[in-house]
Specification:
477 residues; mainly alpha; 18 helices; 69% helix; 0% strand
């Protein structure tokens, strides 16, 4: 079930209404049932995989607590990690592995033909497996106590607002929240609905409209001009932000209505002044997961610049593989890691800049330029296509180009929406919120503003061919 579907517009109010009508002690049971219903709406069999992940990591947590010897505890933790990584590897990377083997055999003239497999990737598997793995590791490290109730733990893994695309939460923050009793609060619900409204604006008005232009240019890049490719890359960078941040905002807002606080997943990433700062602002729940469970255990920056560079490259190579089973994702991850290694090797400035704001702006523009290059690799159909597009930008800048099918009215609407988004991001960067600004208005004016915002999303939103909801980009990961 997609957030931007008519089914969800019925599902969420019903779930919320029943949730707050139920006695507090059984509210979590309703959430668990509805979370599995939400997930099974795609493919019912997917729920078996999530249940397997849940049962195994729950059992590992209980075993770790019960065993006295640390080495036995470690074996239980490793068993949980191996099972879940194996599950993720089979469904996500089997085809990629066989393809790499075939390419190597072809290059070495080895007469081997690997089997062709077609395995359907379960929605959200990367997200809920990482969330479950963090629980097992935290129990082993003594950061959290193992949950005794299997079904309460199952709700932590399957909580529907953030189930299929995050934020990736930790058990220390989420488990107690989703199983606690909550009473309906008008102000909390209002704030949650406004956050959801922002998410819908980002997704159906900006991301899905920008998608039409990006798909047209990237799909026919061989005949596109360099200017078209460059513009499409910029548009995709905004699309990707709005698509994923839009999902996160809807998830955070929906959870807030139910009384659950999820972590912030995006914090104005295109205002970052370095690539490292960008990744401290983009998909924060994943960045912090890699930091806490891979980068720190590897040693982080201990042992000098060389070891830190090695650890960064490992983390971002793994991050690339997490995003997808293709060489372009590996290259994308390694490039992001390499850019941060270079930043770490650069000497700090000897003097304070004469014009600090101008200096900051230049750093932001340089960072965004570098990120755009990585975005092109991320969006391209393949690594070879990405290299061809990068070469075509400077060499075919003035070429006639192709027909994008993007009308002047579509372009105008997209441009206006980009400006609105920039203003919203700037307000948030100044540590303000839209709610703080609208709360200064009289109640009647606020109500009218909210109504106009809803109508604008309905009128200008792109609901897809035949009003079919468009999937979120990160569902494929």
């Amino acid at each position: 079930m997609l957030f931007n579907s008519f089914e969800f517009l019925i599902f969420f109010p019903v779930v919320t209404a029943v949730y707050f009508l139920l006695p507090g002690k059984i509210q979590w049971i309703w959430l668990l049932v509805m979370s599995y219903f939400f997930y099974m709406n795609w493919h019912a069999e997917y729920a078996l995989l999530m249940a397997a992940c849940t049962v195994v990591t729950y059992a590992c947590g209980r075993i770790i607590t019960a065993l006295p010897e640390k080495k036995h505890k470690k074996l239980a933790m490793l068993a949980g990690i191996v099972f879940n990584i194996g599950l993720l590897g089979y469904f996500k990377y089997t085809g990629f592995f066989l393809d790499v083997v075939q390419r190597v055999c072809d290059a070495l003239s080895i007469p081997v033909t690997t089997p062709r497999v077609s395995i359907l990737l379960p929605v959200g598997i990367s997200f809920y497996i990482f969330q479950a793995l963090s629980y097992v590791i935290d129990v082993y490290k003594g950061r959290v106590k193992a949950e005794r109730n299997l079904f309460k733990y199952a709700l932590f893994v399957s909580f529907f607002p953030q189930l299929v695309a995050g934020p990736i939460e930790r058990s220390s923050r989420l488990l107690r929240q989703v199983t606690a009793e909550h009473r309906f609060d008008w102000e909390r619900a209002r704030q949650g609905l406004l956050i959801m409204l922002l998410g819908f604006f980002e997704k159906v008005v900006i991301a899905d409209r920008a998608c039409m232009y990006v798909d047209a240019i990237y799909g026919g890049w061989i005949d596109a001009s360099g200017a078209q490719i460059a513009l499409a890359t910029f548009v995709f960078a905004v699309q990707d932000l709005c698509d994923f941040a839009g999902y996160s905002h809807i998830a955070i807002g929906a959870a807030k209505v139910l009384g659950v606080e999820l972590m912030t997943n995006f914090r104005q990433p295109y205002f970052a002044h370095s690539v490292q700062n960008f990744w401290a602002r983009w998909h924060i729940s994943l960045s912090t997961w890699f930091r806490d469970y891979i980068y720190f255990p590897l040693g982080a920056g201990r042992g000098g610049k060389l070891k830190q560079a090695r650890n960064l490259m490992i983390v971002y190579t793994v991050s690339g593989l997490w995003h997808g089973a293709a060489l372009k994702y590996v290259a994308w991850g390694m490039l992001n890691g390499a850019l941060q290694v270079v930043e770490g090797l650069l000497p700090p400035p000897k003097h304070k800049p004469r014009f600090p704001k101008v200096d900051l702006l230049l750093h932001i523009l340089l960072t965004d330029f570098l990120i755009l290059i990585t975005m092109l690799i991320f969006r391209a159909g393949s690594l070879s296509s990405a290299l061809g597009m990068l070469l075509r930008i400077p060499t075919a800048w003035g070429a006639p180009g192709i027909e994008s099918g993007f009308s002047a009215m579509q372009a105008l609407c997209t441009g206006v929406c980009f400006v609105i988004l920039f203003v919203i991001e700037l307000i948030h960067e100044k540590r303000r919120t839209l709610t703080e600004l609208t709360d200064r208005l009289p109640a009647a004016a606020r109500g009218l503003l909210y109504l106009l915002a809803v109508l604008a999303i309905i009128v200008f939103g792109v609901w897809g061919p035949g009003y079919a909801a468009q999937a979120f980009i990160y569902f494929q990961f």
